[in-house]
């Protein structure tokens, strides 16, 4: 495990502390280790779930059809590209 250099304090109700202490003892670890592992697992699951995009079959078909169509830049994109060409020099 990587060396720890950050601190995070947590206040718990007595019943919550007993619950965590009992679970940590069953896992053979400290309360801090148990809480750290549980928090990391929950955070990873949440971030994975929230970074995933789910589409219905109809929406997926529309998305892939849009990707397959020829691309034509709109006026705003053409203007942005023209401004960029003025500011950026290529070697």
Structural class: mainly alpha
Alpha carbon gyration radius: 26 Å
User: Globular, elongated, flat, extended or rod-shaped: what is the shape?
Assistant: elongated
Question: Care to count the β-strands?
Answer: 0
The biggest sheet amounts to:
none
CA-to-CA gap between the ends? 46 Å
Give the percentage of residues in beta strands.
under 5%
Low-confidence stretches: none
Rounded average pLDDT: 92
Which percent range fits the helix content?
55-70%
- Can you write the helix and strand succession as a string? HHHH
Please, how many helices? 4
List the helices and strands and how they pair.
Blueprint: H1 14-27, H2 31-51, H3 57-68, H4 75-87
Q: What labels describe this entry?
A:
91 residues, mainly alpha, 4 helices
What does this protein look like?
There is one protein chain. By secondary structure, the protein is an all-alpha fold. It has a domain of 38 residues. Helices cover 66% and strands 0% of the residues. The radius of gyration is 26 Å and the shape is elongated. The model has no long low-confidence stretch (mean pLDDT 92).
